[in-house]
Design brief:
Blueprint: H1 2-8, H2 14-20, H3 24-55, H4 60-75, H5 78-86, E1 94-98, E2 104-109, H6 110-113, H7 116-141, H8 145-153, H9 158-188, H10 200-211, H11 214-243, H12 255-267
Antiparallel strand pairs: 1-2
Amino acid sequence: MLVHNLATNTRWQGWIINQYLFTSQVLHGLLATLWLTVIAMVIGVFGGVILAVMRLSENPVVSASAWVYIWFFRGTPVLVQLIFWYNVAALFPTISIGVPFGPAFHTWSTTTLVTTFAASILGLGLNEAAYMSEIVRAGILSVDEGQSEAASALGMRRLLIMRRIVLPQAMRVIIPPTGNETISMLKTTSLVSVIASFDLLVSVQRIYNANYKVIPLLVVASIWYLVVTSVLTVGQYYVERHYARGSMRGLPPTPPQKFREFFVRHIGITHAAPVIPERDTGGAGS
């Protein structure tokens, strides 16, 4: 019924969709959305790793500080945080660098530093760091403690153990939810429209505010969101497959390999080579 409706209902105005799908304004908004997603996720991933290590620290002050950060940013909506950063100049009109409780070396206007784009990055990135910290912490805890103890007995320091032994193994647990967070961040960037920042949704909003073609322009935005999400999903699959090499003897076949195997088995193409699952040699020689 849905396919029939898409094919016969002229109110979808497919010619409008084709007209605006590749316009420069829409593509510019798509590029802005991709930039917001990449920068926010970089801040979120690096901040999440730091917060996760702080949460697992034996120092109670460090651990408590990370817990308070996570509690606050997970406990308040990201939309509220975006609006707060956009209006932070009302609380701090200027930002200064200097000696605490002493003279300032240099002072900037907050409205100059915290632009709409910067407010979008702060709101999205700092919020994402709180969620990523729990994902990274779960990955770290999934690694057997005996490996850390053995490395410590060999004289390795805690940070070196974390970087060389724990985190590489924890990636198998960290990667899948991180991919989901990236896809979610791509769609969450649409919230920046409330603070007049520019992204894909804002670009189509400006168009349909002028021509009143609301539904076709929303379909245009949805198509691009689906395209980018599909690309990210494929990338997530291969990254997961890469980090799964050390956890199983034979890797599952990729979709192209499955497609080729289907033709070999069911259509009778005899000259194609059968698909043999890849084996993880664990770094050993042949």
